[in-house]
Amino acid sequence: MLIWISAFVILFGLGVWLSIVSSKNRWEGREMIGWILSIVFFLAIFFGTISGITNYSTAVKYSLRIPEIQLEVPSSEYESAELVIEKHDINEWIREAKISRAVYGDFSFYPELVLDLQPIP
Q1: Has residue 121 been placed in a domain?
Q2: Is residue 28 a part of any domain in this protein?
Q3: Residue 80: inside a domain, yes or no?
Q4: Dihedral (C-alpha) 87, 112, 4, 9: value to the nearest 10 degrees?
Q5: Which residues of 25-37 are buried (b: 16+ CB within 10 A; e: fewer)?
Q6: What domain range includes position 66?
């Protein structure tokens, strides 16, 4: 995630620089393109950071919840069904995160912590 944010910050700076240089040299169209690029990359930085923080907090929450689920004994059929649904949701998220991390490596928005998480049997 840090690689994406660094790249977007550099591109944001490039967009601002293009806007400033264009306004000094009276390049009408390039100034607008520079500001549009700046806005697009600023939004990418903002939403990329939010996505990374959300995925990190989810990974921490699941890493704490998995041992509890493994020890939990349901007292009714309703609790048993609820537990199976929760296990399925956690396992699905872990699978998606590990695939993303394996395919994209450091370019993934998932933290390295997901590699330590094991699916719940």
Answers
A1: no
A2: yes
A3: yes
A4: 110
A5: eeeeeebeebbeb
A6: 2-116
* 109/44 Cα distance (integer angstroms): 12
Question: What is the value of pTM for the model shown?
Answer: 0.66
pLDDT tens string, the chain, 121 residues long: the values are 566 667 777 877 777 777 777 666 666 666 677 777 778 878 877 887 788 888 888 888 888 888 888 888 888 888 888 888 989 998 999 999 888 888 887 777 788 888 888 888 8
Domain count, the chain: 1
How far from each other are the two terminal CA atoms of the chain, in whole angstroms?
30
Q: Is residue 26 part of a domain?
A: yes
